[in-house]
Design goal:
Elements (H helix, E strand, L loop, with lengths): L1 H15 L30 E3 L5 E3 L8 E6 L4 H16 L6 E6 L6 H11 L4 E4 L16 E5 L5 E6 L4 H10 L6
Parallel strand pairs: 3-4, 4-5
Antiparallel strand pairs: 1-2, 3-6, 6-7
Length: about 180
């Protein structure tokens, strides 16, 4: 009985995006995060497809602040966070802010990703990563996970779990002045 209770709590934490025994991921005194991705190191390069089949590379946005958000259509905390990401994206519509939302859904759910995007009225870029090729070098262990990339191309911050609009704005402000 006790084992089932513990497993239930662990499962609930994973589904809700609650870190298990860890605060939101921040660099330690040495700059090393709990999972090995280091603030200040170059953001791992990647190329991905949009649901429409267009190719997007992180390098395309060098010189711009980038938010990389790892999410899935089945993730309830991700869905709540999307509204905050959209609000930030709209608030910075005259700047060069880029949001790349990297779906961790399986390859057979492209249509589900498109429907999700349309239903929520999202206007930033959705990318597909059904085999976790992008997520692996970013050390994504649960969803949502968000990586803030400085215009120089280095990792500025990593956040585990859902964020609010003020939290996202805080991370952007910490990266330095934003145009627009």
């Amino acid at each position: 009985m006790r084992v089932w209770l513990v497993l239930g709590v662990v499962w609930a934490c994973l589904v809700l995006g609650v870190p298990l025994g860890k605060a939101p991921m921040v660099p330690t005194a040495t700059g090393q995060t709990a999972y090995g991705l280091t603030a200040g190191q170059p953001a791992p390069a990647f190329t991905a497809q949009t649901p429409a089949g267009n190719t997007v590379a992180l390098q395309d946005y060098h010189g711009q602040p980038v938010i990389i958000n790892f999410w899935a259509t089945w993730c309830a905390p991700c869905r709540r966070e999307m509204a905050a990401l959209q609000a930030v994206y709209q608030a910075h519509n005259t700047s060069e802010l880029v949001i790349l939302a990297v779906s961790q859904d399986s390859a057979d759910t492209v249509e589900a990703v498109q429907t999700y995007w349309t239903t929520l009225g999202l206007t930033f870029l959705a990318l597909l990563d059904p085999e976790a090729v992008i997520a692996r070098p970013y050390r994504v262990v649960f969803l949502p996970t968000t990586v803030f990339v400085h215009p120089s191309g280095t990792v500025a911050a990593i956040h585990l779990g859902p964020m609010t609009q003020p939290q996202i704005e805080y991370y952007l402000k910490a990266m330095g002045p934003q145009p627009g």
